[in-house]
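step: validate -> pass
step: tokenize input -> pass
step: predict -> running
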Amino acid sequence: MAGSFSDYLEDKVLKHVFTNTSYTSPTTLYVALYTAAPTDAGGGTEISGSGYARKSVAFTVSGTSTLATNSAAVEFDAASAAWGTVVAIGIFDALTSGNFIAWSDLTTSKIIGTGDILRIPAGDLDITLS
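step: predict -> pass
step: emit ->
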């Protein structure tokens, strides 16, 4: 499974840690769905239209863990038309446009047809550092 911090976030973290350049973390993060996976540089094909909108997500990190996980379920609105096959997710700092933070392929792709609702249960969206 591929996935990573974006080039944008890698640059911000490196500059923050090694050159004392300030970086303010986003107030709210949003999950985006893709039918063609992005790369660290961005790109990919984010779903658009047919009732789709990014959804906010909150994460928790326990103790000295290298794992951040979603603290509550994320539920997208019902598709008003087929969205296609969701193969990856992205994390952004804005509901529309914004900075691309991280991405990952899904372990199992999901076909979203008319009326379908995609849900990510609490604790199922994990971001790790290794």
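step: describe -> The first helix runs from residue 7 to 19.
step: cleanup -> pass
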